[in-house]
Structure formats: C-alpha cells, structure tokens
TrEMBL record:
GO terms for cellular component: cytoplasm. GO terms for molecular function: ATP binding; phosphoribosylaminoimidazolesuccinocarboxamide synthase activity. This is Phosphoribosylaminoimidazole-succinocarboxamide synthase. Keywords: ATP-binding, Ligase, Nucleotide-binding, Purine biosynthesis. It comes from Aeromicrobium camelliae. Belongs to the SAICAR synthetase family. NCBIfam families: PRK13961.1 (NF010568), purC (TIGR00081). It holds the Pfam family SAICAR_synt.
Amino acid sequence: MVLEIPGATHLHSGKVRDLYEYGDHLLMVASDRISAYDFSLEPGIPDKGEILTRMSLWWFEQLADIVPNHVISTDVPEQVAGRALIVERLDMFPVECVVRGYLTGSGLADYAASGHVCGVPLPRGLVDGSRLPEPIFTPATKAEIGDHDQNITFDHVVDTIGAEDAAALRDLSIQVYRRAEEIARERGILLADTKFEFGRRPDGTIVLADEVLTPDSSRFWPADAWEPGRSQPSFDKQFVRDWLTSPESGWDRDIESAPPRLPDAIVEKTRERYLEAYERLTGRSW
Ligand SMILES: CCOC(=O)Cn1cc(-c2ncnc(N)c2C#N)cn1
C-alpha cells in the first residue's frame, strides 16, 4: 500500500515491500503482507514487516565482516517505525543473485528437464529437497510485476555486467550463503536457497542491498522435518499453504481466482512462526 510519508516519494512497490526516495537516500518499507501462490493475501500478518526488518538488520550485522551493506539508519518516519530502513542509494546490478544449497522449486524443474540449473550440471538421482554437493549460483533476471523471475546462465550475467563483476557477484553470493546457511543450520533452520541483490557505490565498492536472508527472500525449512523426496514444509508459510489447499478454504488454485481471506487462527499461527524464526536465529526475544 503506498503511504503518504513526509519527505518520501514513492518509487516502486513489490508484493510485500515498498521503496521510496528519501532525500539523498531511499526508504525501504516492509509491509505485513504475506504472499503465497503468487497472490498477496489478506489480512496481513501483524508485526511481520517489523520482524523481518529486524531479522534483515541482524543478518547485515552478522555479515558485515565479509560484505558491506546499504543500511544507513533505522531512524525512520513514525508511520513505518520498526519496519523500514533508510538505505544508501546504489547503482543496482540488474541480477537476482540466487544461491541454492538444496534443490527445489524452479531449480528442481530445470534439473528434471535438463540435468542442469542455470547451466550448472548436477549429479544424477537428485530429488525434491536434495542437499546439493556444493551451493550453486543460479542467477535470475527480475521479472515484470506479477511474473516469475527468469533463470539465466552465468554467461548471460557476464554478457550483462561483464566478467569481473559477474565473478565478484557469484563469489560473494556463495560466500554469504555459506556463512548464513551454517548459522541457520546451527539453529535448526535449513536455508534451502536465498536471493541477494547488490549495488555499486560511485567508488566501485560492491554492496549488499535489498532485504537479506528473510523467509520472504529465502526458503526456510525446519531442519527436523527435512526429508528429501517430497516438498519440504515451509518454516513460515506452511499453515497458510495447508489451509489454502484444504477443502475448508473453498479455494480452487487452478481457476486462478484470488484466495479467500485467512482465518484469524491461521494468521496468529503464522505470526508465531515469524517470531520463532526471529528468536531462534538472532537469540533475541521479541
Ligand atoms: C519494493 C521492493 O523492491 C526493491 O526494493 C528492489 N529495489 C531495490 C532498489 C535499490 N536501488 C538503489 N539503491 C538501493 N540501496 C536499493 C535497494 N535495496 C531498487 N529496487
């Protein structure tokens, strides 16, 4: 929802976040909206925007020794207190830097069709949820509103931004993923895959931007429920998915109609999952 925020000019809205110009900087606002099956659902999940903003901030702190980030301040307008960040305006690379440690989703589909993901060959016999021998860089181009990102090869990234920057983004993405996956795994959460966005400062420094390592930019799986060979339960969205695909919701996913409003009980259980992910990862109580 585009808010009237003093000093801020709306730039761009995603499914669950909004970006504003804010003086020389940008204001990145996380809403309470939740998205599933490519729909923005109603109602929002209370505190989701704040929980994921705090989670992103915590990850930026954990990663500051290996990559600079775009966060300037949390001193944001009171209408968006706690769920927005003032960030440095960067020259963004037009590449969604996806890293996968496990095979699922569009990666699994590409693998099933070709034995490769984004041109990267994988061993035979992998199934949904298989852990990959090594994390792989599987870039994508930003899709138009409402469309899926398009998986591309590393060579396509080279053609787009040059070999040096393409290698730098790949290496940095994998390094950051490895660090985050280890931290999450120690806390019982499998970071199956994640999407980074990077920008460049005028001095050429590559900076980690956007949100990082939240359940909106990543697949979070509860480690104790991991079982390759079937789809894994989502740490945060499984209650929503199960209800939407149950007879109780009356929703038929195939006719592409908007899903019904979520019942209060599903909203509350989902809020508790976001809180649990935040507290387990950061060790901080809400
Ligand atoms: C509405 C949600 O979509 C986005 O925020 C994607 N996006 C990010 C930028 C960006 N542009 C310059 N500098 C930055 N630091 C950033 C960041 N983050 C533009 N679009």
